[in-house]
Amino acid sequence: MKMGAGLFWGILLVIIGISLIFKVAFKVDFPVIKILFAFFFIFIGIKILIGGKPWVFQFDRDKNDIIFSEGYFEDSEDISPEYNVIFGKGNFDFRNTRLHEEKYKTIKVNTVFGGSEILLSRRIPVRIKVESVFAGTELPNGNSTVLGSAYYESDNYEETEPHIYLEVDVVFGALEIKYK
To answer: How far apart, in whole angstroms, are the C-alpha atoms of residue 42 and residue 47?
Structure first.
């Protein structure tokens, strides 16, 4: 089991849920929960005032994760297969991606409660699959989706030739994929 922020928030939400059930079903009030909330917010406020980040906002993150910030990723030889944007903004420039002899290169971009912009080149064949949940997504051909799936294939895309396969998931966020 992973210890840290996820465990803390999970336990806190379970306690709140159980206390709400007891409050409604048995008309029992738990003032301890209110006091815990008060101390929690005081703790966060003090940590922010003295210059440290509260431990609940420190996540184990990869160099390709954008959490509570903004990031820019350019093409490189060692382009990552997966990027995550959580409560932030991600700018991705895949215009100079090299395909080599591979059949296709898979790149996955996940955006949760944030925004992402992906730039592509018309000379690179691309196939895109977008899954969105309460999100605004816009594909290069102008198609958009708020809830569900959307697909796009560039004019020069052929399944047997090297291409980029872009797999994108957006939850409560915004995404724009365009040619530049």
So the answer is: 9
